[in-house]
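Illustration: UDENN domain-containing protein.
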Amino acid sequence: MATVLPVRPNTNSTGTTNSTASRTLSTQHHTLSSNSDSASAHSHALYEHAPAQLPSHRHISNGLGNGNGVPSPMTRRRQRPIKSQYPANSTEKHVEYILVASFDIDRGSVMEHQYPGPVGGDEHMLAELMLPDQTHLRSQDWTIFFLHKDAAGEEDDEMKRRKKRRRRRRRKLGEDGQTEAGAEEREDVDGDDGDGEEDDIDADDDYDDSSDEEAFDGPPLVYVLNLVNTKQDHTVKRGAVVKAMAVCTRHSFLHIYKPLLLLALEQYFANPAIGTLAGLYNAVNAMDLSLMPRLNSYERFILQSSDAKDLFLEKFEAIIAQRMAGSNASPSNPALTAPSPTMNPSQRARYGLPRDTHELESVVPYAGIPIPVKVPTALLPETVGDFSLVKLITTFSTPHTASPQPFAPTHPHLTTSGALTHPIIVLLNALLTQKRIIFLGHNLPSSDVAEAVLGACALASGGVLRGFTRHAFPYTDLTKIDDLLKVPGFIAGVTNPAFAHKTEWWGLLCDLGTGRMRISNRIEAVSPIPEGVRFFQQPGHLPSASSSTAGSAASTAVTGISALAAAGASLSAGLGGSGLMGTVISGDATGDVAFMAGVLRAIEERHGEGAVRRKFRRWVVKFTRLAAAFEEWVYGASMLVIAPTPSTTHPPPSPFAAADQSPSLSASSPKPVSNSNSSPASLPPEVLTHGYVFPTPQSKTNELAANATRIEGWRSTRSYYNFVQDTAASYPRRPVKSVDLQHLHDRLAKLRLTSEGSGAVYLAICQVVRGEREVEELLAVVGGGVWGADGGVQGGALQGAAAGGGGGVGGQGQGLFYLGFGLFHPKVEVREAVAGLLGRVREHEAGRHFWVGVGRFVQGARERVERAREARVRDAEEKAEEAAGG
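Result:
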């Protein structure tokens, strides 16, 4: 099958167009065979003139094509139909239930209507949640809460659908001569959960993890967005009428329904009938989100890591082209055509490209009014609603900065930098170590405490860890306290000040009104001392007074671990209190002080909500890698990381072997490979290391010792075990298994390597990063940046080189900065391999944004390397011809 899209003219580093390549592509006819049926081949001519509304694609450079019309792996994979996150033929509803509750002076909170049927459970409890405390004092309020709805029937239906898809896979693979065992293996790693087009299989569906990862801890939550209105009416007993309307959805972007709820509740006040609910229910479920492409985990992270508004625009182009093909397209034979310039303008507007690919704009007609909504394209786990981390951080940072108050008591899991640990770090530690947390908002709207709870969940998750929202209660009250206390490590939002006086109910109290946090004097003590903490009290593992390398995370004076020799309450100071051993930690051993300074600086400079979320995501990623290094050193092994495992035998041939071994690729790489999981003989031992990169052995001791109590506290929590499960589940879908790309990139950035050492790292990266999926994993690595000595991401000379790119843009890491250094390596084979790698990155739909960010200096260097390579190949060919002729 073939995807026909407009041609994007290639531009070199000077901004000029490669007219020869453009003319070649605009007139060449490509015949591409389908992976599922080699007999069904279609020839299409690429459009010579791109429509005004659809940006064109770049041509295939020598980093991808072979110069003979054979598409590269990256190009060939794009021929598959793009799947939608929310297919038009899906039976899943955007909104499952609509509820209406009201307050009666005689009966209290009453549930008036549930449409289209009862939700189930205690109706009175639901009504109380929909009508929060003191709601009569405000004309309007919003609340959010979650329902753990039994999904046994839904799980049975899903199992039937999976069995049906498995039978289809077996039948289809059998037609291609593949065994049933191969079909079983493919099913085990397939991540598709949908219907319809997901039944079709391509050669690389093993890596399709674009659907949400399977939840190990239960069915998806039902998110409830609730609006409460109070209207003054002197004809009723209390002088006011209080009603609430809520929508129940499985989608975490429930904030998009706010304008619809505002209109619907006003209509319900005027016409309190079931028909009002039916109108809203039908309107929201008619919302068309089928033009939102499905992204895999790497693509979601890349999109979240960049502010570029046209990132992955090609996916929107392709899915629009599929839709505009109309009834002539089918999953097995999609007649994909681009929009015609002569098409009706209204029809073109219907399939218009988004102005910002981070969100899909749609319209919900309701009550004769078109309501615009913006749905996020890429949502990370534990992200619910439209909370603001900037607001949460500012609430607790401002009082702490103006008048620091030491925590009393302290706790080794929470106050990892002593009694003056920053409140946000204390909150992070409390979330990671599964303490009971309450956000109190006395005399504040319940929406404020709900947003704080949701923001806290995202803060500790970073899109990496799970298990916070499932045990979160964005709003609750005293009537639910018995049920609340049965939940270990809950995160709850309340407005009743009585919670502040019950210190046995919580471990950390966050007062939104005052901006202060309190650690309960009845919090569970740490006893006995964990083995990992005792490990760093032994000779040979004690932190040193100073780091041997400037720029390490423990560059300040450190004379030992304090307060770790005593048990129970005497551990209260963690790493920052006065200890019985006469040792004191000074400076910023954990790096948290510098990290929070960087976060506050980003807020002051108005970098935006996205930049702040990216900083905390990097903090969580660093923490998990530190924890893995901690376990491997202290306990000898870790389940948090899977070490590189090159196959003991040669890998099976790649389906793109012909393209991989093209002359152009052979010339640009000294040893091209056909599969990212290379054999051991092809990778030197020095590149098979993994894990967090420490500049020196002493810096490793200092940093792991500083984080010992925090890591030990995390190791017994549900987020820890969820992360272990997620690591194991995602490994079969990981494109590069033979090396740790993050580790190799960090070695280039953080260590002073010899030319031989850096050359081995560059060649290893170039060898395993060949196809589109491998490039995506590499972009996810470089997009995350490198953790520096200042507790944040190290700056680079290329930062700010170009706006709109995923790399090189301030607050987004260094992008391709450290890979670009390979263009200046003394060995020619390394320079040419890196040039080929950057060529493949440049032709990737997301990599082109990173390539723009490297600046013209690196772009010019790559051109010089390519010209030198071409000259060398040309000379070799001439000499070979002369030798043959002589």
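Reading the tokens back as a structure: The chain has a mean pLDDT of 75.
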